[in-house]
Amino acid sequence: MYLTSVVSTASLLEKLCEVAAGHRFDDIADPAALLATLIPDPTGGPLPWLPRIPASIADDARWGPYLTARAQHVTNLANQVRLDTLQAPPPSWAPSDTALPDRLLGDVAVWRAATDVAPEDRHPTGGRAQAGAARHYQDQLDRDLLTATPSLDIAQLRALGQGLDHDPGVPGLARHLALLEDSGTPTWALVARALAEGPLPAERPAAALYWRINQHTPNAAPAGTNAVEPRTDQPPFRPRPEHLRGPSRATGSPRR
Q1: Considering the entire predicted model, what is its pTM?
Q2: Best label site of 26, 80, 157, 171, fewest CB within 10 Å?
Q3: How many angstroms from the chain centroid is the CA of residue 91?
Q4: Residue 118 half-sphere exposure, CB side, CA atoms within 13 Å?
Q5: What distances in angstroms separate CA 48 from CA 75, 114, 205, 254, one per listed residue?
């Protein structure tokens, strides 16, 4: 689709040479696969991660009007999803302790609707997109959500390993720890105690750590809160002892 969209301004060969410039292909087992990953995904379509209709097709007397109407229909549906979301009570996937900006709330709602995220999936953007423009847009949404919600020591939680370094549930766990910290609870002591019970499971390690912490917290959040949106694909391993030490009060710890 990308190469089709640029055929009117540059030859396909020239465009491929431009994309491949600066990369080594001599020792690559599958050069075509590498080249495919270097070709940028176009955007500008009816949804932020979709490409616009290539000019060569948009100008076609038969397909141009049809595809233009379909694109407009998608735009109209997205606008309706945004409107419905803003007029309804906060969705179950939204953080219970923070009001998200309207724009972000609408963006996530459109993403969930377009990618068919299950209503019971509490991770705002659902399962991980495979690659391409959709993956980049999902990553941007996750970053925007992280910026808009209170969090604590996410980088240090990821440094514990055991799958937490790639688990999207970590930001939610960090928000839960931030709330506990604000109430005067020594959160790093709770984390260390929870990890001392044994390795976290390979599947949903942030959720497992969340429930272990709650077992040792008198006023823990009840089941069903949106503190964690777990998902991971990393195998577990035991953290090194230095990972269990809390951040220095003298130097502080990064907040994201």
Answers
A1: 0.55
A2: 26
A3: 17
A4: 7
A5: 10, 11, 31, 31
Written as one letter, the residue type at 73 is H
For 167, counting Cβ atoms within 10 Å of its Cβ (0-12 exposed, 13-18 middle, 19+ buried), the class is: buried
CB atoms within 10 A of CB 45: 16
Nearest-angstrom CA–CA distance, 193 and 173: 16
Q: How far apart are CA 12 and CA 156, in angstroms?
A: 46
**229 — alpha (psi -120 to 50), left (phi > 0) or beta?**
beta
Residue 37: φ, ψ to 5°: -70, -20
| Helical packing angle, 102-114 and 132-148, nearest 10° | 150
User: What contacts 169, CB < 8 A, 6 or more positions away?
Assistant: 123, 204, 205, 206, 207, 210, 228, 229, 230, 231, 232
CA dihedral 11, 13, 16, 18 (to 10 degrees): -70
Calculate Rg over the CA atoms of the chain: 23
For the CA atoms of 228, 233, 236, 239, what is the dihedral angle to 10 degrees? -60
Query: Residue 148 in contact with residue 124, Cβ under 8 Å?
Result: no
Query: Per-residue pLDDT for the chain (256 aa), expressed as one digit of tens each?
Result: 455 554 544 567 787 787 777 677 777 777 777 777 667 677 889 999 999 999 889 999 999 999 999 999 999 999 999 999 999 999 988 876 678 899 999 999 999 999 999 998 877 888 877 777 888 888 788 778 766 765 556 767 776 777 887 888 888 888 888 888 777 777 777 888 888 888 888 888 899 999 898 887 766 554 444 444 444 333 333 333 333 333 433 334 434 4
Query: In angstroms, rounded to a whole number, what is the distance separating the alpha carbons of residues 93 and 90?
Result: 8
Output the CA torsion sign for 225, 117, 155, 211: positive
